[in-house]
Amino acid sequence: MTPGGHARLGAALLVATAGALSRGAPSAAASPARAPPRATALSDEGCVACHADAARTWRGSLHHASASNAAYETAVYAEPLAFCRRCHAPHGDPSRETSEAAREAGITCTICHLRPGDARTVLSSPREGPVSAPHGVERSAALGQAVCARCHEFDFPDARGERMQKTATEHRESAYASRSCASCHMPEANGHRSHAFAASRDATLLARAVSVRADLDGDRVRFVLEPVGVGHAFPTGDLFRRLTLTVVTEDAEGRPLATRRRYFGRVFGPVRSGREIVRREIADERLSSRTEVTFPLATRAASTTVRWRLDYERVAFSPTRHPEQAVIEGSVTLARGELRTTR
Ligand code: HEC
Ligand code: HEC
Ligand code: HEC
Ligand code: HEC
Ligand code: HEC
After folding, report:
1. What does the pLDDT read at residue 218?
2. What residue spans define the domains of the chain?
3. What's the CA dihedral at 115, 121, 122, 127 to 10 degrees?
4. CA torsion angle 128 132 137 142 (round to 10)
């Protein structure tokens, strides 16, 4: 990581002011199914003790590791902002270095399941049937959707009103707008909804999320990429995620003739704003529908082999505007293949 460098925001932000982050209570209407609240306030220790299944899957999640995973800790070390801590370490005091307890806790049960200011009623999904819980229950569509949007959609911490992440908007504009986030991200296991929220570290899920077709089309290689069952742009979330399509042509002896790359990510670049130059999003090239890409073969060799590969990359930071110089923190190959040409 760049020592003292603005690793994460630096790509997109020159002037960083500690900005107020609006995380108001979710506003969806309550469903009629309710259980009366109890007198004692609920705590994470209580939830975990009574709900072993949810607790077990949650323990392996990035929500639990939101303040202790290596990618976040490296990034926040370079940019120790209250802005980051308020979201990633909600049990800590955002104006100070995150305490060991808040770091270890991460995003816990009560953060999602309790409305701010009400520690007696648990939010649940809006299903039918009687409530048998020994605590207050409010069944509402907000839990699987509006609650997620509190953290999965937000602006950069300056006042320019540009989104740092925009998963909720992407979802609203997708073909899956009518399905909740939870309906895709919390599959059922043992009669309970998984709280593992597996995604960017799960190679199988990632590979399933895109289909790739490659063929030769005259003097070109043509790719058709299509997201499969993704309820938002792919990749979504963290602004530095991207897909990289690498195409290498080789001659008959296996010597590389040319390497070409195409990136599918958000592109930030300098834009004039009054008397300042600031970095803004200038293009969003992530996949959101069927996308066709062609590369020229660019060789007169009698026979060539074309090797291609599609990678999902988690970028740590970009030292320059050249995407090939980005420092990659984690990467998963989603698909690969080979084509041969003879003239
Ligand atoms: C004393 C034990 C106990 C504690 C503490 C407890 N629960 Fe429950 N909870 C239950 C039982 C029993 C049920 C009903 C059976 C079931 O759904 O597992 C239930 C039901 C639920 C439901 C489903 C409600 C419905 O009918 O839709 C949710 C969601 C829930 N609890 C979340 C929580 C959360 C979050 C916490 C901590 C803030 C918590 N519970 C604390 C025992 C407890
Ligand atoms: C309090 C803020 C907060 C809430 C509420 C929240 N998330 Fe998250 N979520 C995060 C953070 C922070 C991370 C990433 C932690 C990290 O990688 O450092 C994350 C990670 C995830 C991941 C894994 C992403 C990956 O890269 O693997 C998924 C999937 C996810 N959340 C979905 C949801 C859904 C669905 C909901 C609503 C039911 C939700 N989240 C509610 C903050 C939140
Ligand atoms: C990131 C937000 C989030 C966190 C953190 C979270 N939950 Fe949930 N939980 C949900 C959502 C969303 C649902 C409803 C899924 C659905 O049915 O649509 C749910 C459902 C439940 C249910 C009822 C459904 C079932 O299958 O049992 C229980 C019980 C529960 N959670 C307990 C917990 C406990 C205990 C913790 C902490 C260890 C926890 N939750 C942490 C979002 C969260
Ligand atoms: C139609 C199903 C579907 C819906 C609805 C959906 N997602 Fe996803 N999401 C996916 C798939 C598929 C992936 C990519 C494969 C994976 O990692 O699971 C993904 C990936 C993610 C990731 C990891 C980053 C990435 O792109 O690899 C996050 C974070 C996330 N989703 C959050 C959300 C949130 C928040 C919502 C609601 C606003 C939501 N998702 C709605 C299917 C869905
Ligand atoms: C409003 C909530 C919010 C704020 C503020 C926020 N983040 Fe995040 N962050 C998230 C969510 C949600 C994700 C998960 C999205 C995903 O996995 O694609 C995430 C993912 C990340 C990741 C990716 C980790 C991984 O899984 O590879 C890093 C690193 C990170 N955040 C660092 C920061 C830093 C540093 C700041 C402050 C400059 C910050 N975040 C501010 C919500 C937030």
Report:
1. 84
2. 9-193, 203-342
3. -110
4. -30
Q: What mean pLDDT do residues 84-93 have?
A: 97
Q: Which atom of ligand 4 approaches the CA of 170 most closely?
A: 38
Q: Which of 12-26, 158-172, 220-234 has the highest mean pLDDT?
A: 220-234
- How big is the chain, counted in residues? 343
- Pocket flag, ligand 4, residue 209 (CB < 6 Å): yes
Question: Is pLDDT above 80 for 299?
Answer: no
Indicate whether residue 105 lines ligand 3 (CB < 6 A): no
Q: How far is CA 128 from CA 31, 33, 138, 212, in A?
A: 10, 8, 12, 40
Give me the chain's average pLDDT, please: 88
Given the CA of residue 137, which atom of ligand 1 is nearest to it? 24
Write the CATH number of the domain with boundaries 203-342.
2.60.40
Q: Ligand 4: distance of its center to the CA of 191 in Å?
A: 22
In terms of pLDDT, which residue wins out, 66 or 271?
Answer: 66
Q: Ligand 5 centre from 122 Cα, in Å?
A: 26
